Amino acid sequence: MSREIPASGKAALTVSRPELLIDGSDKEFRRLVHNLFAFFARHEDIRNGHARVVGLAGVEYSVLISISHISVSGPVNIRTVAEHLHVSGTFITRTVKVLERKGLVIKTVDEADRRRVNVAVTEWGRTELNRLSVTQRQVNDVEFGPLSAEEFGKLNDIVERLISSSETALAMEDYLAKR
Fold it and tell me: In whole angstroms, what is the distance from residue 92 CA to residue 82 CA?
């Protein structure tokens, strides 16, 4: 298999959709992807910093704060948290066990469906999240400061659509790899 540069001197395109090509080039697409990598790496560092303030790993913090925010609408179960974070129920179950051992969440049997386990943030957990919120607000305001309200809404919509399409793309990649 030859590892030579194509005779044209151009790298192979990484996309083919006309909407993603500018003057036949995928340069802007690649710029977007690399910028997304950079943003998400920095955002993960910020999340990990928030987590350290309350003595947690980043993923533990994400699960804890998700339970806290989702519970405003009523009881929260493992499946709801998993769907909210786009991860498996098994992952949430393991993380909730860690949070429970640390005294930050409590599990209870759902009264309406005894097969289901509900999770809630303890008073200690709420105290820790409230303590963090002062720093968190300042950092989040700076990180997302460049966005107008309209841009924020559009970005939120775009990211939700990209999450859905990326799940389909992962399935396609897995299928094509097996061929």
Answer: 6
Looking at domain 34-131, its CATH class is: mainly alpha
Buried residues in 12-47 as b, exposed as e (16+ CB within 10 A): eeeeeeeeeeeeeebeebeeeeeeeeeeeeeeeebb
What Å distances lie between residue 168 and 33, 43, 79, 83, 174, CA to CA?
17, 24, 20, 16, 10
Q: What is the DSSP letter of 12?
A: P
Q: How far apart are CA 103 and CA 56, in angstroms?
A: 12
Over the Cα atoms of the chain, what is R_g?
Answer: 21
Q: Where are the domains of the chain?
A: 34-131
Does residue 66 have a pLDDT over 90? yes
pTM: 0.85
Assess whether pLDDT exceeds 70 at residue 2: no
